[in-house]
Amino acid sequence: MGDITYAILGTGALGGFYGAKLQKAGNEVHFLLKSDYLEVSQNGLVIESKDGDFTLPQVLAYSDVEKMPSCDVVIVALKTTQNHLLPHILPPVIKDDGVVLVLQNGLGIEEEISQIVGNVRIIGGLCFLCSNKVAPGHIRHLDYGQITLGEYKSNYQPTGITEKMQQIAEDFQNAGISIELAEDLLLGRWKKLVWNIPYNGLSVILNARTDELMADVHTRQLVEQLMYEVALGAKSTGRVIPESFIHTMLSYTIKMKPYRTSMKIDFDESRPLEVEAIFGNSLRKAETAGVNLPQIRSLYQQLKFLDTRIIRKQGTGNREQGTGNR
Ligand SMILES: NC(=O)C1=CN([C@@H]2O[C@H](COP(=O)(O)OP(=O)(O)OC[C@H]3O[C@@H](n4cnc5c(N)ncnc54)[C@H](OP(=O)(O)O)[C@@H]3O)[C@@H](O)[C@H]2O)C=CC1
Ligand SMILES: CC(C)(CO)C(=O)C(=O)O
């Protein structure tokens, strides 16, 4: 059994998948759940994966962080729309010398987390994963799975490859999860947004899968324009995304199985959208540097309209951070 203990905050499509792989490889993993708590505490987790199905009949399941032990690595795998819960649920589960590993999509989340637990190390992970939760405690892993890890330092100064990143990478690799180490977390986050901003946004607004967006000449052009605008955003924070990376993302998506993005799945299920973490924070970072990103802003405005409608229907609040009135 590995020496590092893990807590998973949010045992859904992503947290359930990676957490189960870590446990299967012999690591001690503690899973925080909400609506699936009873099912998972009684019957464990079922993972259907293109790399091989498996079940974990018994897992350490919790519905309350106060009952969890403090762990060496706390994996944040909630939707960012739930991040307002972090000041309450993060401090009880993290050891003083622990690491918070943020596996969510978006920008600036590590900065927000450093305001909550400023004394511990924070590592960000960019997950190239296609996974869905299909029933309580039942995860379907469709494709990919690689994580790019980068450590956070205040103002996103590059940290290089740290020993902590290497230790965590070793556990993940032993669990069959492919890991890449990044010297500069902020660059890694912008690169992930090159994909998420066009595809997540347009899939919702145009009601389309990735293959449909790539098959039409007009939307393909729009995707590409948005990718270049993300690169402008990155440049405004001193990070250079080479043109070749944009071409790689375009051809990667053409080869990808027809895919409904995670934001489209949330929209179809009438769940709040991760608009602020992905779009709002990117706009704000660029704006702080005096750079306007008009096409991304237009997506943001349309998504806010749709998100507000969902929230009104549900009568719940999307408490994602951000001013919400860009
Ligand atoms: N799925 C994927 O393939 C990928 C996801 N990501 C990112 O990963 C993050 C997580 O996404 P994903 O796993 O898909 O989302 P899911 O909705 O599948 O998982 C989030 C989980 O958090 C749980 N949760 C919510 N509130 C609480 C709470 N108060 N206490 C305990 N658990 C709670 C939810 O439980 P309940 O269902 O009961 O509300 C849910 O199971 C997002 O930022 C997403 O963008 C990034 C790349 C790929
Ligand atoms: C890039 C992709 C498809 C998988 O990592 C994703 O992040 C998403 O659907 O939100």
Automatic annotation (TrEMBL):
Chain ranges of the Ketopantoate reductase C-terminal domain: 185-305
Enzyme class: oxidoreductase
Domain Ketopantoate reductase N-terminal: 6-153
Molecular function, one GO term: 2-dehydropantoate 2-reductase activity
GO CC annotations on file: cytoplasm
Catalysed reactions, as listed in the record: (R)-pantoate + NADP(+) = 2-dehydropantoate + NADPH + H(+)
Keyword Methyltransferase attributed: no
Superkingdom of source: Bacteria
Pathway: Cofactor biosynthesis; (R)-pantothenate biosynthesis; (R)-pantoate from 3-methyl-2-oxobutanoate: step 2/2
Keywords, alphabetical: NADP, Oxidoreductase, Pantothenate biosynthesis
PANTHER family for this protein: 2-DEHYDROPANTOATE 2-REDUCTASE, PROBABLE 2-DEHYDROPANTOATE 2-REDUCTASE
Protein name according to UniProt: 2-dehydropantoate 2-reductase
Taxonomic source organism: Trichormus variabilis SAG 1403-4b
